[in-house]
Amino acid sequence: METQEKLDLQQLILEHSKEGTITCANAFRLVREYGFFPDIIGIALNNNKIKIKECQLGLFGYTDGKKVKPAETISEEAENKIYFLCEDDDRLPCMAAWNIANELKVSKLEVACYCEKLNVKISKCQLGAFK
Fold first, then answer.
1. How far apart are alpha carbons 19 and 76 in whole angstroms?
2. Are 111 and 101 within 8 A, CB to CB?
3. Domain boundaries in the chain?
4. How far is CA 77 from CA 27, 43, 67, 82, 101, in A?
5. How far is CA 97 from each of CA 22, 32, 88, 122, rounded to the nearest angstrom?
6. Under a CB-based contact definition with an 8 Å cutoff, are residues 59 and 122 in contact?
7. What per-residue string of b and e applies to 27-55 under the rule 16 or more CB within 10 Å gives b?
8. For 65-84, how does the pLDDT look when each residue is reduced to its tens digit (9 = 90+)?
9. Percentage of the chain with pLDDT > 90?
10. Which letter does DSSP use for residue 38 in this model?
11. How far is CA 15 from CA 21, 48, 106, in A?
């Protein structure tokens, strides 16, 4: 983690973005490397009119054909975890989806595909891209 007294978040964002966009993974690299909260990164991105692309859950902005489609099968464990962590009318927060992926040792995209099969919407993007 950076030990400077004061980091220039705007400069970091401009350095890590390209043509007015930044990948979700690169935004989270800033979170990890510099200790910023994801929502602060999201606000700074908005203020600088930088769009997030390549959501790690596959929800928007992919150029290589990755997208969310209903999973063919889903384990009972995955289904139970998703339903247990759902909020507000079958909505699973992004952070919960990431945690489930980590616990089950599957990709974040796979968790999103499970949600699609269960008609569960992913909500509350950690970077603020969607509610």
1. 43
2. yes
3. 9-53, 63-131
4. 30, 35, 23, 9, 12
5. 21, 18, 15, 8
6. yes
7. bbebbeeeebebeebbebbeeeebebbbb
8. 677 899 999 999 999 999 99
9. 79
10. H
11. 11, 12, 31
